Structure formats: C-alpha cells, structure tokens
Automatic annotation (TrEMBL):
<dbReference type="InterPro" id="IPR036890">
    <property type="entry name" value="HATPase_C_sf"/>
</dbReference>
<keyword id="KW-0418">Kinase</keyword>
<dbReference type="InterPro" id="IPR003594">
    <property type="entry name" value="HATPase_dom"/>
</dbReference>
<keyword id="KW-1133">Transmembrane helix</keyword>
<keyword id="KW-0812">Transmembrane</keyword>
<keyword id="KW-0808">Transferase</keyword>
<dbReference type="InterPro" id="IPR005467">
    <property type="entry name" value="His_kinase_dom"/>
</dbReference>
<keyword id="KW-0597">Phosphoprotein</keyword>
<dbReference type="InterPro" id="IPR004358">
    <property type="entry name" value="Sig_transdc_His_kin-like_C"/>
</dbReference>
<feature type="domain" description="Histidine kinase">
    <location>
        <begin position="1"/>
        <end position="111"/>
    </location>
</feature>
<protein>
    <recommendedName>
        <fullName>histidine kinase</fullName>
        <ecNumber>2.7.13.3</ecNumber>
    </recommendedName>
</protein>
<dbReference type="InterPro" id="IPR050428">
    <property type="entry name" value="TCS_sensor_his_kinase"/>
</dbReference>
<keyword id="KW-0472">Membrane</keyword>
<dbReference type="Pfam" id="PF02518">
    <property type="entry name" value="HATPase_c"/>
</dbReference>
Length: 112
C-alpha cells in the first residue's frame, strides 16, 4: 500500500511541477512523545493547492477548478486510504520557500 501511495504522489508531483522542475523526496525519522515515526515528504514547485482545499482533495471525486481533464478525482483519495490502512497520516503543506506543495506522510514505527 505504501508503494502505491508513494507512486501516486510522485506522479502527481511530476505532473504539477513546472517543465524541467524538480520533485524532491525526503525520508527521515522523528521522535515525538517517546515514539518514533518514519516521515516521507514529497515536494514540487507547481501551482500548489489553496490551503482551504487541502483537506478536500482527499475526498473521492473532488477536483480543483483549475485542473480540468486532469483525472477522476480519485488519486489522492486512494493515497489517503492506503496511508490510513497502514496506520499513517498524510497532510499537504505549502512550501515556505516559494510556490509548490509538500505531501507529508508520517508512519509510526510500530506500523513497519
């Protein structure tokens, strides 16, 4: 399931990154409240998603108005479900260093 989620997120990032753009994947561990989590961040420098719509894009068939014909609106819903089934979470964050978006996956150590 993790492979499916990561593949879909990287494909989305490549689609939305500007031509010749870079997609960054960062893997690291964090410790919080004496438990460790694996973190995977996938970032692009595309147009991003407005903050008010970030939770909505994980709903089935939801599409932003600026992406006609880009798909069925199922990709991120499938990603969220896969991450949830393995005990993790996913959030979308705007980049602090310019345009783009980062998908942040957190998986507790006891889930892997």
């Amino acid at each position: 399931m993790l492979e499916t989620a990561l593949s879909a997120l990287m494909e989305n990032a490549m689609i939305h990154a500007a031509s010749g753009g870079i997609v960054e994947v960062r893997l690291y561990a964090i410790e919080q409240d004496s438990s460790q989590s694996l973190c995977i961040d996938i970032s692009d420098r595309g147009p991003g998603i407005p903050e008010a719509s970030r939770a909505d894009v994980f709903r089935r068939f939801y599409q932003l108005g600026n992406t006609p014909g880009m798909g069925s609106g199922l990709g991120l819903a499938i990603v969220a479900r896969a991450i949830d089934r393995i005990g993790g979470t996913i959030e979308l964050e705007g980049r602090s260093d310019g345009p783009g978006l980062t998908a942040c996956i957190r998986i507790p150590r006891d889930c892997f």
